Amino acid sequence: MIMADSGSSEEAAVIGNTDITSTESENNIINTMVERGTSLLKKMEISVAEAEKRTGKNTVNMQETYTVYLIEIRQAESATEGGTPAAPDTLWRRYSEFELLRTYLLVTYPYIIIPPLPEKRAEFVWHKLSADNLDPDFVERRRVGLENFLLRVASHPVLSNDNIFFHFLTEEKGWREAVLDTGFQDKVDSRLKSLSAMLRVKSPDRRFTALKQYSDELNAVVSQLLRVRARVADRLYGVYKVHGNYGRVFSEWSAIEKEMGDGLQSAGHHMDTYAASIDDILEEEEHYADQLKEYLFYTDAVRSVCRKHELMQYELEMASQDLAYKKQQKEELVTGTVRIFSLKGMTSKLFGSESQEQRESRLSALEQSIEEGIEAVMEKNTECRDFVRAAWEDIERFKEQKDKDLREALISYAIMQISMCKKGIQVWSNAKECFNKM
Amino acid sequence: MSVGTPRGLASSGQKPITEIPHPLSAAEESLSPGPDVSISSGGDKDLELTNGTLVENSSPASASSTSTSALLSRLQVEDNFEADAADLYATTETRDLFVTVDDPKKHVSTMETYITYRVSTKTTRIEFDLPEYSVRRRYQDFDWLRVKLEETQPTNLIPPLPEKFVMKGVVDRFSEEFVETRMKALDKFLKRVADHPVLSFNPHLNAFLTAKDLNKRQGLALLTKMGESVKHVAGGYKLRARPPEFNAMGEYLDTFSQKLGTIDRIAQRILREQSEYLTELREYASVYSSWAGSEEELQRPLEGVAGCVTTCCGALEDLSENMSQDFLPVLREYVLYTETMKNVLRKRDQSQAEYEGRLEAAVLRKQEDRTPMPLEVEKCQDKMECFNADLKADWERWQCNKRQDFKQLLIGMADKNINYYEKCQTAWESLVTVLQDKQTEDKTRKRPTRQQISTAELCSCSPVGQIEGGV
Prior knowledge:
heterodimer; A: mainly alpha; Substrate Binding Domain Of Dnak, Chain:A, Domain 2; about 10% strand; B: PX Domain; protein transport (chain B)
């Protein structure tokens, strides 16, 4: 699905316009998703509008506090003629329900790179940021992350058609039962097995190997980047805040001066402004960190697709191997040569060969087995082929999306830096003016 | 700040301090507008006198002196206009003595290694035999000059010198940075002395600027003599009460030096924080670089970001260097200056104490045996009043200079910070342009459809083990 060449209006807004805010840049990503125009998104506008704290009894009958998120669905074919736009359909969901949805998707579409959820607990924090799950800033960022998740799924050519997903958006009650009814949990076990098993595949698919390697590299480098970024933020915070001390000392100093007093005092205020400005700057930068985190978590999804393929490959190889062995057995039986050691062969040598009847019954059993084996291999082969085709289609889509999104994220980061520089110039220019009046 | 010292003063030769008319008294009506009149900002229209005619300007100081001599001196100044443009202390239109310290050179002898500086002088004063001089001096020589000035002009505030002793091993006395910083401080010291209406006529300054070889032994002998007399004066007199104006000065100096200390600490702290920030920033850049290594489409954008961050690192380094080279030394110098000022205040106190002490003694004696007021007491009174007047004048000068210096210093600090942010902004802006161009390029570029990609890749599929059955 190629993104249709959008109208010139969007391009005009982008060319050489370094004044677009980072929020606008982020919105470009969302717009892209919406533009992708899956049939689902054509029908409805999805958003996660609010977050609320609730208390209730959990499964072990203990009081707990948790957060629920309000999902809003608006009909995309918006206003009725001349009337007010229809009120959105809404329902509340907990984070755990999002998790359940995702697990379901993971199991049901093993060849698709499933979009990740925002982190459960705050990681890569720099010191000022709270690591508390109930902190309003964290909750807010999580709300945005959940909305992002829904939009990603809704804009996916395959996932957007899923019924359970549709019901997640539209049916508050009874959704949980519906998901469990699909019996996807049975497949969960085999998935767990696939992820943890050490499989030795004889002829691995080079493309998947390369992809897994890339995914691991990306995971490592983005983790490192997030860690260093947090430290950078910490340090920058220190630099700005210390300047606040100038504010105080200039104020005290201005008290003993005559002509210099006013200029010093006002300059001091600007130093205070400077010191305070870092809070907003770093808060905004968290958006950038969130964008990076999304792709960090995406690498896990990529990895699991690769592993699933490995498992399939392995099973196919096992089936082929099994078939080959059976064929060989048949050959030996027919020709009477013993190439493969078998207990039967040994015992027949020791206790005399079997009767013709026995041989023929064994032969027919083997032939039956071989036929089943051939079918199994064929099935596995087709399964594998289908998986590879579908997976690579999604992988290509993902690569394009990743390149575009990350480029967008880098642009918005650069814009944030420019904004920070402009603020700095402004404050110091103001201070300079005050010094001039000294 | 000078107040238009008439040229007549200089030509009347060296006069004892008590006979030289007080600089402030002659031109009390001319309130110098202070720094606004300075030539430091080049191209000040008020002072451009190309055809020698007096121009109406806002400065009362120049308006009041319409004598030919003043006119001549102004024209004189004009010749050296360019040279003064950057000089902070060229605040008067009648300067006729210009000094510069530059060109540091290392001297290695068998006994020691030391640095000398070139001291250049340009002057029209008749106290000097030649219009130009160029001599080489080392720190010791500056120190000698300072000591001599303190001895011979005890009632004046002598500008401070940079620190004499530096801990070997901690500071490299011969590093470019250290020498550069010290040289700037020495230059400032000498300029301040040359600017001073009284100090600049001191014969020791003359010797310092002109003599091929400073004869210091003579000075040393004088030193011991003077030292004794100073002690003699100081001994045994307690001050009753400091007049309020001097009290205010003392209090001001205390608070001021305290604030300076705080600012110094803050600046140092900022430097430390910036240094740690810089370390992290460098690693940050390298992570982007290494990420670029595993990407294709994103390689250039990521390298671009790495480059921007590196540029910002360089800009930050410049900013920090500036703060430690230019900002901190000047700040510290003022701490020294403040200490010097406090010392002068103390000496003034002593002079007042001596006078009061003697007066009291004399009054008592007078009550006893009706002797007239001894000459000694009158001399003491004169001395004290002279001291007070000098100090007040110096105080005003000092305040003005201080205001000028700090204005300059803080503006400089603001400028450096603005500069830093401008450099960073430019780097990021050019990156955004590049990235956004690429974006639009991608949007318009024709790309193969997904179907075509899939089929192509299917064909290049690697074999999947032994496959039986129809494929």
